[in-house]
Amino acid sequence: MAGRDPQELFAKNGLVDELKKALSERLLNTELDEHLVGDAGRSVGNHRNGKFRKTMLTGTSKVTLDFPRDRNGTFDPKLIAKYQRRFPDFDDKVISMYARGMSVREIRAVEVTGNHIGDAPVLPDLLSQIAPEQEIGSVTVDGAYDTRNCHDAIADRGAHAVIPPRKNAKPWKPTTAGAVARNEALRASKSLGRTIWRDWSGYHRRSRAETKIDCMKLLGQRLMARDFDRQVAEVQVRIAIMNGYTALGIPVTKAVG
């Protein structure tokens, strides 16, 4: 914004409209990328096929967007439907997402399961989605993850587990690094008390994940797809959209001089 007249920021075709255009086009292109590697995109010969221009009416202005398209014409974006011309709540959604912490962190791993699979069994799979060369400082989850497999998976990545031991928990045999770390957490919890331990350990950071779930619900309270595989793809698209918002909200610092 350096050198820009503050009054131009909210004027027609000002900085705010430029950001809307950049954000929308980035998200639409991300959706098309996901579409082309999904079921519809695997059909023979489907690929990107240029763009077309469309003017959208948001709550406060008109924004002209370059919509990407595929050769087969099967791409129907979730953010803005193919034949949609009005997006009156666009501004409110963007502001609400940032107000709820959208600009805090990216979603780096996701697992979609049926109701027959609990939370703890999927944690090792989630951690495996983070590249081995990427350092994981800590893993903060609730007491449902207080299992040997979870603690061992976290310890194998060299991360610190912040997991409240279950009530009436007993020490484990210290046969693994995960078990040793869990026994130390159990001793600290009993010594400090569960309430003080939560403050001392930084357990409150788990609320960031809950905030992300609230942000995802702004894109729709329910999934539109009925088939499970397509539901998984829809979740992946929503996450790509959310990460697009996040990337635009993270400041870039450059040295001057």
Question: Can you lay out the helices and strands and say which pair or pack?
Answer:
Elements: H1 15-37, E1 48-58, E2 62-70, E3 86-87, H2 90-99, H3 123-128, E4 138-140, H4 148-156, E5 160-162, H5 177-192, H6 194-201, H7 207-217, H8 228-249
Parallel strand pairs: 1-3, 4-5
Antiparallel strand pairs: 1-2
Helix pairs in contact: 1-8, 4-5, 5-6
Overview of this protein structure:
The protein is an alpha/beta fold. Helix content is 41%, strand content 11%. It is built from eight helices and five strands; from the N terminus they run αβββααβαβαααα. The chain has helices at residues 15-37, 90-99, 123-128, 148-156, 177-192, 194-201, 207-217, 228-249, and strands at 48-58, 62-70, 86-87, 138-140, 160-162. The strands form two sheets. The protein has a three-stranded mixed β-sheet with strand order 2-1-3. Strands 4-5 form a two-stranded parallel ribbon. β1 and β2 form a beta hairpin.
Summarize this, please?
The protein is of the alpha/beta class and 257 residues long. It is built from eight helices and five strands.
Classify the beta-strand content into a percent band. 5-15%
What string, H for helix and E for strand, traces the elements in order? HEEEHHEHEHHHH
Query: Over all CA atoms, what is the radius of gyration?
Result: 23 Å
Distance between the termini: 19 Å
Q: Detail the poorly predicted runs.
A: 99-103
**Percentage of residues assigned to helices:** 40-55%
Biggest β-sheet, characterized?
Answer: 3 strands, mixed
What is the strand arrangement across the widest sheet? 2-1-3
Structural class: alpha/beta
Task: Give the rounded overall mean pLDDT.
Answer: 80
